[in-house]
Amino acid sequence: MNVIPLPKKYTENEGVYRIDGKIRSDFDLPLIADYTEKSDGASFEIIKDEDVANEGYKLTVTPERLTVKASSKSGAYYALQTVRRLCNFDLGGREVPCCEIEDEPRFKWRGLHLDESRHFFGETEVKRLLDFMFTEKLNIFHWHLTDDQGWRIEIEKYPLLTEIGSKREYTQVGGWGSGDIEYIPHGGYYTQEQIKNIIAYAAERGITVVPEIDFPAHCAAAIAAYPGLACFEKKTEVPGYFGGLIPEKQGNLRWNRTLCCGKESTFDFVFGVLDEICDLFPSEYVHIGGDEAPHGEWKRCEKCQSVMRKNALKNEKALQGWFESRLISFLKEKGKTAIGWNDIIECPGLDDDGKSLVIQYWTPKRDKHAERYAEGGGAMILSNHQSFYFDMTYAMMPLDATYNYNPRAFGIDADGDNVLGVEGELWSEWIPGREKLDLNAFPRMQALAEVAWSQENKRDFSDFKRRLDLLKPTLEKLGIGYAVDRVSLNKNIILSSKVQSEFRKGNPLFETELNKEYKAEGEK
Ligand code: ACM
Ligand code: ZN
Q: Which three-class secondary structure state does DSSP give residue 308?
């Protein structure tokens, strides 16, 4: 068996079926047109069968016939992805080993996130990522479209969000805590037409696009465009700093800025933006961020303090809870479910019955609020930092940390219905383009896919690595610059001193160089 993610049940038999380029299908599957021609009498057949699990499939391969049964179009496509792996289709293989497979996903939420604020990748890169998500049977694209360092989605009611908020003059380089700046303008955004096009592209691949629009923090780009959104109206820039130990660039204002919760005009803005977001994205879920809200400006703002007194909110965390609750109920009225980072369940007074809110559990350490929330049946997506933060270097988070993710270590029973699934996060502070994107995303995406799709009791890192080795020629053929797994390489590798010293300083950009040296040495 060479398939990633590993199917639920399989038996391998003698012999092969040879794909002859003809297929008969009960489903309309336009994406297979490139390697098959429709033909009524074909021995390669896709049959609609309502008894098969949603997104699941049954595959029977004998020397004479290849039969797929599925109840959904996604299930039919996933069966074809399995066939593609079984015969090494991308390498020119057409012989499918005889087998019987019954497969279905462990989790309904199998997500990958992309931060386009810190670096903007654009439509071509996003579609390429969606293509690879499709082959790995991932089905949620969590699109981080706004943050301090850039607003990346056209909002018709507020044109300055993109006119001003999508551009910055400089970018911090060299890793967390580095004071190094590159004075190269960076910008970009998606028009609503492009967004619709990407949503449709994803939908054909069984992928739901979930937008993330961050409130009330991580709003410096929006505030640069509309200074009245902040507690203190003052012209500020779109920052190119990402955080860590950095100089305070804008007087005493931080790179991570919050909206003023004390003005009704803030809610007019937020609801105006969310109106357009809800109209654009068919997703049931809208991610509203809610992480890492600094309280400094709220503490000094008379309007925020006055709202706190009026609503008997005992501190600024409660003010955030009051703010989040208004957003959650706004979305609920529009028929949507809000997602927030787990920071928001620390806010007193939050509507956290788990029905109108999903939390995304990201914090690096076991978190008692998240634990309690899950125990109470609150809905949850698991993205724990030490396993699923794909921006991390492999030195800090080797591949097995992703593969061997154990929700119980975080106090979570992932078998409950309230756990929707898992997600990998591609934060892009240190990912300026495709080369680094590939390195950080592959083969972590394959490890994530196996956590998300396959049965937990079958997870075995050494068998995964065996199958990954079989996949590498395909990844190379498809032009994917994946990371080598250093854990398993010869420890006597001699690296150049420059690469070593930059890497030790924590410069994540040197991971690309390190990977090349490991790869060259490891393959000798
Ligand atoms: C996060 O990493 N602040 C969600
Ligand atoms: Zn305020």
A: helix
